[in-house]
């Protein structure tokens, strides 16, 4: 591996098996909540343990804050496990597949031979390992594609979702997934405009003002930032003129009117479960 003959002394040798994919049965017991490595054990392949742990913290953090401030019932905390455990199972599965891709690879005999056959086998092995490297680290689908369609605080639309592939991420503004990112100009991201807590994205403020959401949010104690953007690109991606985005940048609801604003706000805060 050094690329040049070197003298070395082996002091010890041991074996290590990659491919662990363990997820705890419970993420919560009463007032005790667990996250990160305490509830999911990853093989290091793909570096997904850190990503998943951060998402755990963000998901639980805004929910704890809402309950502590008295804006949401304790049921909101129950949705932490409901949302995050399936993602942990998904992500550990991806990581295990990456580990098996490299762990189960067996070099062919004569790969080190100083011959034309050895040269061909080395090129073949290099091509395989290069493809593995791309598949393990070029994973926008894993990073951005997790969804909470099943969550009782998401007003899901029941649309068929694209296949969940590690290397493919297709921006989708249907409730339950990450809000699609758009550059508004060379220096400003759409995410820069979001509020620290909740955001109401208005893409046609003149025809869909969403004033009932502002009133309902104020009554519920919800910190709601209203963001007005008139961009054809956003309208094509988000499809609806009103989009309600959670503190973790997950879309909770979208639509073209605010007649049910009170019920929607109560749903996303956990006061009432979403109808399926």
Question: What would your notes on this structure say?
Answer:
It holds the Pfam family FAD_binding_3. GO terms for molecular function: monooxygenase activity. Keywords: FAD, Flavoprotein, Monooxygenase, Oxidoreductase. Its cofactor is FAD. This is FAD-dependent monooxygenase. The structure is a single chain. The protein has helices at 48-68, 75-103, 116-137, 140-144, 190-193, 211-220, 232-238, 261-268; strands at residues 21-23, 28-29, 32-33, 40-42, 198-202, 224-228, 242-245, 251-255. It is an alpha+beta fold and 276 residues long. Among the domains are: 105-138; 161-276, 3-Layer(aba) Sandwich (Glutaredoxin). The strands form three sheets. Strands 6-5-7-8 form a four-stranded mixed beta sheet, with helices on one face. Strands 1-4 form a two-stranded antiparallel ribbon. The longest helix has 29 residues, at 75-103. It is elongated, with a radius of gyration of 24 Å. 32% of the residues are buried.
What distinguishing features does this structure have?
single chain, 276 residues, alpha+beta, Glutaredoxin, four-stranded mixed beta sheet, two-stranded antiparallel sheet, 8 helices, elongated, monooxygenase, RIFMO-like, monooxygenase activity, FAD/NAD-bd_sf
Mean pLDDT: 92
Through-space gap between termini = 56 Å
In DSSP terms (H or I, runs of 4 or more residues), the helix count works out at 8
Fold-level CATH name of one domain: Glutaredoxin
The name of the CATH architecture of one domain is 3-Layer(aba) Sandwich
Major beta sheet, strand line-up: 6-5-7-8
Helix content: 25-40%
């Amino acid at each position: 591996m050094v690329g040049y003959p070197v003298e070395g002394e082996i002091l010890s040798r041991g074996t290590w098996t990659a491919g662990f994919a363990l997820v705890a049965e419970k993420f919560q017991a009463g007032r005790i909540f667990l996250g990160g490595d305490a509830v999911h054990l990853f093989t290091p392949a793909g570096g997904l343990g850190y990503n998943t742990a951060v998402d755990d913290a963000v998901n639980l953090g805004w929910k704890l804050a809402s309950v502590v401030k008295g804006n949401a019932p304790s049921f909101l905390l129950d949705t932490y496990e409901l949302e995050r455990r399936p993602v942990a199972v998904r992500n550990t599965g991806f990581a295990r597949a990456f580990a098996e891709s490299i762990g189960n690879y067996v070099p062919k005999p004569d790969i080190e031979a100083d011959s034309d056959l050895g040269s061909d086998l080395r090129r073949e092995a290099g091509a395989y390992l290069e493809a593995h490297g791309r598949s393990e680290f070029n994973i926008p689908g894993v990073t951005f594609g997790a969804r909470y369609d099943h969550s009782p605080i998401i007003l899901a639309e029941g649309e068929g979702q694209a296949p969940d592939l590690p290397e493919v991420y297709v921006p989708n503004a249907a409730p339950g997934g990450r809000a699609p990112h758009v550059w508004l100009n060379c220096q400003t991201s759409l995410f820069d405009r979001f509020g620290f807590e909740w955001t109401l994205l208005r893409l046609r403020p003149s025809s869909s003002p969403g004033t009932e959401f502002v009133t309902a949010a104020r009554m519920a104690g919800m910190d709601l930032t209203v963001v007005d953007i008139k961009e054809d690109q956003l309208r094509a991606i988000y499809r609806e003129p009103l989009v309600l985005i959670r503190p973790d940048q997950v879309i909770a609801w979208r639509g073209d009117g605010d007649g049910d604003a009170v019920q929607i706000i109560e749903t996303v805060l956990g006061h009432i479960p979403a109808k399926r």
